[in-house]
Each structure stands twice: as C-alpha cells, then as structure tokens.
Amino acid sequence: MNNKGIHHISIISGDPQVNADFYVKTLGLRLVLKTVNQDDPGTYHLFYANGEGQPGSSITFFPWSMAIQAKPGTGTVSTVSFTVPEGSCDFWIDRFAGMDIKFDSPTDRFGKKVLPFYDPDGLKLELVEDQKAAHIPAWQGSTVPAEHSIRGFWGSNLRLTDYSATVNILEQVMGFKTAEENDHELLLTTDSHLGHSIIIEKSDEPKSGTNGRGYVHHIAFRANDEEDLKAMRKKVLEMGLSPTPLIDRHVFMSVYFQTPGGVLFEIATDGPGYKSVAESEEEMGKKLFLPPWLESRRDMIEQRLQPVSVE
Ligand code: ZN
After folding, report:
1. Does any domain span residue 1?
2. Residue at 19 is within a domain
3. Which residues have beta carbons under 5 A from ligand 1 (an ion)?
4. What is the Å distance from ligand 1's center to 218 Cα?
5. pLDDT tens-digit profile of 18-69?
6. What is the pTM of this model?
7. Do the beta carbons of residue 76 and residue 25 sit within 8 Å?
8. How far is the CA of 259 from the centre of ligand 1 (A)?
9. Ligand 1 centroid distance, CA of 94 (Å)
C-alpha cells in the first residue's frame, strides 16, 4: 500500500487561546505538541491532531496575536479539508449553527459530500465525508462523539495558475497519482487513509495571496524515514529546485523547498512522532516542549509566552 500523502499543514493564526479553543473545543482535535516557533522562540508553535498524533492528521499554527488578516488568492493553499465518517455532515451543521461558526451549504465534489466552514482567522476549512475515515480510531477524549469526529486530513486545495510543475512534484516525489480532472479542478490521490487527496484549483489570475493570520505557511508531505527523505530530496534537486538541508525538528526530520506555483512544500518523516518528546502518551501536548538548544532558557521563554489552556 502507498502510505504517502499529507504529513502536516502549518498556518499563521491570531490569538493562541482563540486558536486552541476552536481546534480543541469546537473541532474536537487533540493538542499533541505545544512548543515554540524555532525561528521566533517568543511565540508558540501549536500542533493539533487525532488522538494518536498520526502523520496525516496534524494541523499546526504559528500564533501571532498582532498578525494582520491574510488575503486568500492564487499561489496559495486555499482550503484545508478534514475527513469525517459518512453521514456526519448533519451533526456538524447543527454544531456549527449552535456555536455561531460560519459555514456554507454542503456540496458534492468528486462524489463526496463536502461541508465548507471557516476558522476564527477566516481560514477556509472543509469536512469531507469519506468511508476511509472509519479505518482511523476516534480520540476518546474528543469533545465530539466518536461516530462523527474528525480523524485527520482528507486533503487540501492548492489554487494555482502554473500547476504543471506542482503536479509533476506531487506525482514524481510525493507519491500521488492524477485521479480525476475537469475544467476547473484536478484531483490527485494516494492510497493512504489520511491526507490522501490534493485538489488543484485551476486559476488564470496572477499570484495574489498575501501573508497574515489565516494564511497557510506550508504543506508537508510524508517520507517513510530518513533514508526515504534523502531520496525524495534528491529527486527535488534533480528537478532543478532548491531544497534545504535536512533539519531536525525532533518530532520529525524535515526538508523545505519553494514550488514554482508559489506554495512552500515540506517533506517530513513519519517518525519519531509527537509521543517521542512526551513522558507518556497521556502527557502528549501538556508540557511545553523546547528543543535542546533552548532548554537552558526555559524559565525566560515560559514567562514571555501567554498561557494557553485546553481544559
Ligand atoms: Zn512543517
């Protein structure tokens, strides 16, 4: 089985507590890792995922309370889609209506029922009903009943003008195959249960998205292990692109590169995973994790960070 697909998706948000309330209390995800932005240790990097923190389930945020509003546009990840069990959309419509969450009418796309909605920073999200969701265990600690809870990513939409190079990267490096195409959209898939679908929205506008809260900073794809990551990086180099060296993020190893369509891609290893930096599975996401080179500054860093509670 081809286990490739999306690994995680990272986004710029506004206030960290508003962000945590939405993703944990409203959507029922688990905070699996609370750490700092390694490029700006005075701010958080928050990771929400399914109960086990599996690859293909983690949506991560760089919260900056003062960040201006992003503008969606071409050359960006326009939509992040979560997978839910079949028959779940009616439950979520009632939940969103009761919680005053902005959502649109459900639609049908490539044979799947899709419920679009928006996070507090205006990021467009979707729930997609998918039979594959039933293969993934529900997190028992979720605020959402198991039969309807989010299991991880279904996929993501990239809005692109020049999409042929990106399709080539997805097919030749990331393990996707073109599955369906119409005048407006192209669907690429893998066999994985989570994060298995990328939709290219064909745009004829120049690059237009601007950074800010609600902006998808990058999308990461799965490598089996470090050896596979090196092989995938080599293919990226051979395409004439400029990947970074391997970077140790402690919960996975990463390589980043800019794609010709405008979206920043990352490749990340499946392991060691979020559990590896917690004392136990129970403790995942509770204590602030710092990379070893920041540990000596823990007191100062913790004092500067606004507390975030998911209780
Ligand atoms: Zn990343």
Report:
1. no
2. yes
3. 10, 220, 266
4. 6
5. 999 999 999 999 999 999 998 899 999 999 999 999 999 999 999 999 999 9
6. 0.98
7. no
8. 15
9. 33
